Amino acid sequence: MSTTDTVTPARAGRREWLGLAILSLPALLVSMDLTVLHLAAPTISADLRPTAAQLLWIVDIYGFLIAGFLITMGTLGDRIGRRLLLLIGAAAFGVASVVAAFSPNAETLIAARALLGVAGATLAPSTVALIRNMFHDPAQRTTAISIWFMSFMAGSAVGPLIGGALLEVAWWGSTFLIGVPVMVLLLAFGPVLLPEHRAPLPGRMDLLGALTALGAILSIVYGLKRVAEDGLTVTPLVTVAVGLVLGTVFLRRQRTVAAPLLDLDLFRLRTVSVSVLALTIGAVAVGGVGYLSAQYLQLVADQSPIMAGLWMLPPLLIGIVTTIVTPIVGRRIGPGAKTTLGLVVAAIGLLVVSRTNDDSGVGYVVAGLVLLFGGIMPVLALGVDIVVAAAPPARTGAASAITETAQELGIALGIAVLGSISTAIYRQQMRDVVPPEGVPADAVQAARSTLGAAGEVSARLGPALLESAERAFTDGMRLAAVVSAVLLMITAIIAAVTLRRIRATGGGPH
């Protein structure tokens, strides 16, 4: 009689879970800085007096550079060490936060935000790669990545709330100083709690590939954001086209260099390809419908920015609960079934959002977002786990960068495409509205541009024209929600077929 020994992965102990708490802090902060500046923009404008173009760069350059440098930083961490890169990024993030807080002019603030973006790009792939190396047990790893992802999503939601509270009692620079104590904690405890890990034979860094990837992602993200704001005009379309060409060049180069930045062999695994697809489409839905819902709450439901942020808390809390529960349920249900179920629930939530009308208040929007976040957040966490688990240990930094890039591009794509759909419906309906007599022509033109512009001249429009503008915006948001629901259902069908054979794992910290 013979026996076969099965090697059981080592389970994480107290040190690893404390290390996870430290790793969750930069995830919270990086996502918070993506949204915390939105409420501070008017105050910054009054103080530093930037031009319109400078204000755009102050708000956007942080997210642009995070997206652009993710793949490069993920690969760099594999080479020099994930903990070392994380600590370097944390120090740079802290310094840049102080510079941003006390910027005397717009140019300094733009430069500081750019450094924050580059530093932020070091944090996400390093943290996920370290989690992969700290938690070898599949159940514990799934739980750890879910907690990390929950922290990332929480930062996006609480950013406007914290920013609004700080602006009530302090100057705009205080919104940047939030990051300083967080990074001090990371620098103090990171060397003690986090293990170092790097690829054993990393090879030469592909600098030309890094520049090509940066140019491709920046061009695509910038072009998509301009499409969302300006519509399908020549400049943003050309910018996106340039990005696609650079992206094609980058992918072809990755097949020929000895040490590629992006391991294309990972995409030969259908589970990885479908997980990245689910990450991207999920981010499209959250980014696009979340963006439109925030506008609806403020411009149609007449909620203040802080109240709009508070209305976003129930969806976030439900998303946190489902993200925590998912690994436990995963003991009996495989990742494929959970991914499919999450996508279907999220699609149902979007159909609930599509029932909103201009006088229904916040009920349908909040209820729909509860289902959207409750369904999609576990899907996104699962997608990260599947992709990172599929990568060899030496390539986990690059693999985690793939998941982060998919989400960043998905959010940009969602805002651009779904925002463009909403804007097209809005402008089409407003062109057919006959303005009441006595309304100035410039006010009518503003109202036909965007609902935000209509709100700025609402006193001159009259109630009938403003109601038409609110109805047109709501109809555009409803169509965007339906389009997102269809995309999620298609992805759910693909996931149900492709991921059904992945073994069920899950669990919580023990």
Automatic annotation (TrEMBL):
Q: Which UniProt keywords apply?
A: Cell membrane, Membrane, Transmembrane, Transmembrane helix, Transport
Name one matching Pfam family: MFS_1
UniProt main location, coarse: membrane
Claim: Ligase is one of the keywords in the record:
no
The family database entries (InterPro entries) matched by this protein are listed as: MFS (IPR011701), MFS_dom (IPR020846), MFS_trans_sf (IPR036259)
Cross-referenced SUPFAM superfamilies, in alphabetical order?
A: MFS general substrate transporter
The Major facilitator superfamily (MFS) profile domain sits at: 19-503
Q: Name one GO molecular function term.
A: transmembrane transporter activity
User: According to its record, how does it sit in the membrane?
Assistant: Multi-pass membrane protein
**What transmembrane ranges does the database entry give?**
17-40, 52-72, 84-104, 110-131, 143-163, 169-194, 206-225, 231-251, 272-294, 306-328, 340-356, 362-388, 409-426, 479-499
Which protein, by its recorded name, is this?
MFS transporter
